[in-house]
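fwd from M.: "can u put these together and see what the complex looks like"

so here's what she sent:
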Amino acid sequence: KNEVEQSPQNLTAQEGEFITINCSYSVGISALHWLQQHPGGGIVSLFMLSSGKKKHGRLIATINIQEKHSSLHITASHPRDSAVYICAVGRGPSNYGGSQGNLIFGKGTKLSVKP
Amino acid sequence: EAQVTQNPRYLITVTGKKLTVTCSQNMNHEYMSWYRQDPGLGLRQIYYSMNVEVTDKGDVPEGYKVSRKEKRNFPLILESPSPNQTSLYFCASSFVGYPLNEQFFGPGTRLTVL
């Protein structure tokens, strides 16, 4: 069993729909990352969080440490949101500021938003 | 412009011929890391560095070497490349410590070992 599991693997949505991508992990972590990989291959960091919730524009990320689960939500989805979304967890100790160290990744969720 | 650069972007080589992929960042980041991405396996960490002269193994370090002699550079060395090292490689960097700091990724290096 992978230490970081994402669901769904593939997701097709219509423009305007509310989207949720899930990430569950089985290890103790210092922080969780959400990344976006564009169709051209470039990777952008969307969020890093260790508790609670963060919002940036139409994107919202939440994490429940007790349940070892995080969700990435996209409101009012748009075709330009089409990408692979990757969850990663940091296993670095707390003296790394909880942010980095050894990272392990989920296999990604491929999102396609149709106009 | 703040960025992480990797060179070369594409490389085709033969088994056993030593090669180096360079990674450089201009943001004064302490943390740098190398990842490889393979179909069906996703991203996996090779090595990371928390600061100059400090490096640690990730999940797939076999067959790779790194060094961190300067803060801005973190080269990835393949002493004797083999076909199973054919992959897409990414370098990334970030600050360390709170508040949590996002990673900046390089554009990737596509390596083919024949």
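replying to her w this: The first strand of chain B starts at residue 4 and ends at 7.
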